[in-house]
Structures are given as C-alpha cells and as structure tokens.
Amino acid sequence: MSEQVAVLKDKGNAALNQGNFDDAIKFYSEAINLDQKNHVLYSNRSAAYCKCAKYTEALADAEKTVSIKPDWPKGYSRLGSAYYSLGQFEKAVDAYETGLKYDPSNVQMRDALADAESRLSMNNGFPQPGGIPNLFDNVNCFAKLQADPRTRQFLNDPGYVQIIKNLQSNPKNLQQYIEDPRILTTLSVLLGVDMTSAGDSMDVDPPSASQSEPKPSSTPKAPEPEPTENLTDDELKAKNEKELGNAAYKKKDFETALKHYNKAVELDPTNMTYYTNIAAVYFEQKNYKECIETCEKAIEIGRENRADFKLIAKAFARIGNAYKKMEDLRTAKVYFEKSMSEHRTPEVKTIISQLDKKIKEEEIKAYIDPVKAEEAKEKGNDYFNKGDYAEAVKFYTEAIKRNPDEPKYYSNRAACYTKLAAFDLGLKDCDKCVELDPKFLKGWIRKGKILQGMQQPSKAASAYQKALELDSSNAEALEGYRSCSISANSNPEEVRKRAMADPEVQSILRDPAMRLILEQMQNDPKALYDHLQNPDIASKIQKLMDAGLIAIR
Fold first, then answer.
1. Of 435, 458, 434, whose CA–CA distance to 446 is shortest?
2. Are 242 and 223 in contact (CB under 8 A)?
3. What is the pLDDT of residues 97-124, one digit of tens each?
4. What is the pTM assigned to this prediction?
5. Where would I find the H helices in 125-210?
6. Alpha-carbon distance 229 to 138, whole Å?
7. C-alpha distances out from residue 295 to 85, 262, 303, 306, Å
8. Are 13 and 44 in contact, with CB atoms under 8 Å apart?
9. Residues with Cβ within 8 Å of residue 200, at least 6 apart in sequence
C-alpha cells in the first residue's frame, strides 16, 4: 500500500470513528481511486455507507470486497450486514454462513447469523424446515394467545382475530401485517421468545419533563404488558424499581426517580434502558456532563447486550441534546448524526438542519472583523486601480464577509462586476448597497450605470432620479438621467419593444380597468386628476410613463 493510500485510509478510519461518515466515504473513495484492488478500502467504505443508511452502495462495496479477496471472512460480514439492512435476510444468512467457513470461531458473525435467521423466520411467518410446526396452528394458536397476558386483550378485537385467521390459512401473508405492533407481540408469544431485541425494549423511557428533547416520530402506543414468567427475581425487582422511578419522574421528583433507577441498575446492570432513564434525570437537572457520561455507558451496555438500535439512537440523541444545551453545537451535531446512523427519524433530521443553520450563523458572526474588512478593501482598491478586476473582486468579497453591513464594499464590488460585464451580479450588489443605506448616493449612480449597460434606460433613469433626490447638482446623475431620457425616447419602435417585453407593463395593458382609464384620460384630460388620487392607479400610470408608452403634458 502506497504511503498516500495509507494516509487516506487512516483519515477515513478516524472520520468513521468520530461519526463523520460523509468524510470517511470521501477519504476511502480517494484512496480507492489510487488503489482499486485494495479489498480493505472497499470493506471500510461499505461500513461507512451502512452507517449513512446507503445500503445499496454498501452492498456494492461488500460484493467488490469478496470478489477481490474471496477468502477474507470480514468481507462476508460486510456482505451479510448490507443484505440484512436491505431486508434480504436469506442472502444475509448465506453470506454469514460463508464467512464462518473461513473463520468458524468468529463470535460476532455467529451472533449476526442467528439474528438474520431469526428475522428470516419471522418474515416467513414460521421457522425454517426442521423447526416447530406452523405458528398459527388452528388448535394451539388461540389457546396460547388466550393464556398469555400480553395477547389476551387483543382477542377482544374482531379485527385482530380476523388477522390471525387470515394467517392461519396463509402464514406467508405475515409481511403485510408486520408493522402492527400487536403482531410482533403475537410472534413473541407463539415462538416463546422476545421478538423485539435484547433489553427492556418493550417499555419506553420516562417522558421528558420539558420539551427540550425530540419528540417520537409518531404517537407512541402504550407499551404492552411485559412478560414476567421468563424474568429472574432480580430482573423483576429491577423492573419494579424502574416503574417507581417513572412515577417519580413524571411528578418531577428527580431525586426519588434517580434513587429507583440506580437501584434498577444494581439489580440488572445489563439493561441499557435503566441507564438512559438516569441520563434523563440528569438532563432535567441540567447536569449535562453526567447525562453524557451515563448515555455513553448506556450505549456501551447496549452494544454488549445487542439492544434495540432505536434505544441506541435515543441515547445518542440525548447526548446531542446535552451538548446543544451546553452550546457546543458542532459536537451536538456529531451525536445527532450518530443517532441518525442507528435509526432515522424526521425529528432528528430537522434538528441537524437547524444546527447546520446555527453553526453557519455563528461562523459568519465569528468571522466579522471591521479592521480586517478595511484592510481587504484597500487591497481590492489596489487591484482595481491596476485593472485586475477579478482579483479585486476577491478582496472586496473578503471585506463583505468581514463586515457584511458596510454598503461601500458592495458598491466597490459592483464597480468590478461592471468592468467585467457581469451586470447581473453588479446589479445585485447595488440593490444590497442601497438597501443597507438608501442615502448612499454612489450606490444609486452605479445602479443607473449598470441598468444602462443592460439596455434598460427607463429603469436606469429611475435610479438616477433617486440619486438626484439626494443631490440635485450631482453631475454624474444629471448626465445619466439626460442620457437615459434621450435613449428612452429616441426610437419609438425600440421603446415599444422594450415595454412589451416587460411582464409588468403587459399586465397593466391587459387589465380591462386600466384600459378604460387610459381611454378616459385620452378623451377627457380632466379625468387624469381623479385617477391619480388612487395610489395603485397612479403607480401603474407612472410605470407606463417610465416605459415611454404614454406622455402627460
């Protein structure tokens, strides 16, 4: 591996570890352009794509990895992960099984295989051949559902009963009902396992006592009653402590809540929910550092015990909110992006967009420096005087960034754009200049000159007129106004063409009411006075006069 490829790979690894997935992909891609036969680079980029939820790209890189190095176990792990994320569980199982042929002792891949097999079994509606009989067996199904407290209440709903009967006749219809949380609970009962994930994922964290954290992506359903027959005594006690903590939390009795949550952790230290509950208390107490540390511990525990990815995402989001409260917006953004890589929700996506906007605003404010702005302007003047207008634009732009409220910088840059015949950009700067300071004489004159260059004499005359209102003796404004007046009326045919190309003029002329008014003005000059009393009509008449289509004597 060349030194440059190694450097890019290390940069990609660092970015991936920090949660900067887009940067990681960029560095890996640059390295791949230099070394297209390096299987490790494709493998790493596949992992980065997975984190960004770009699973199709992740699959392509995983396939490339195993094609380059077909005896490398990790390549099949990447392949399995991509297939799993795309919902292609059968292919994921095949990939993991192939990888285990090359590395039979790989515990992580064995766990991933078991997970993929479980999901495949759930999607098919019944276990693979060799497993237990059809889950929706006519005799046993309703008896099991009636006996279990988690599903007993569902049987009171005729709609639910009809779904089960449908699945009895054709279990493969399960996919169309899999989004119904009752069906997931039903599968848990019929299989005799928890189909959610490791951890206390059927329950929810206590509701936030403030509105500072993102709301759930949809209105949460009340958690189903949790199974208790498979819990140890300590796990049962931990669950009870958590319920006591939740009750105290809702009353904003945070010290009592903290006491119960800590007790729950002592009894069941493998359940990350108890740690995130503790973090929620710290957040409400404004102990943001403790909140962050506890969430990081929760994530560590969750990873070790294969907790639901939504719980991991929630912990990352809580860290992001804590950093946000601490005004560390960049770090907050990193953790919200990590949350999105685990589980994408519209709420977190909106928060990231808001943070981007605030970070940009902060960067702009931090960059403001009037002294450096003047230095940049002076350099721009030097280049302007030398005739190097493109270079002058760079320094005037720097001056604007350093002090965006100073109108003369926009005026100076507009002068450069005029010299470069970039009239549209110059006009935009002139408009900004006179917006900041409507009494900036040079801004109006410069706008007039640009509009003349754009062959819009009537609009240019209006700009010069504004300048003359500020200084009636200004020679440039007088000459510009005289020149525009002559140009606007020198060729009637050209005047008509320009006017008819103006959408505003066309709109006025198509207005039946205005056509009637113009006819009245022609037949009865005294009618003009009455119509001019209406500001809206007066402005339209003025527009037609400026366009050279009518004249009033």
1. 434
2. no
3. 999 998 888 877 887 887 777 667 655 5
4. 0.43
5. 140-147, 149-152, 158-169, 181-191
6. 25
7. 25, 14, 12, 16
8. yes
9. 226, 239, 242, 271, 273, 274
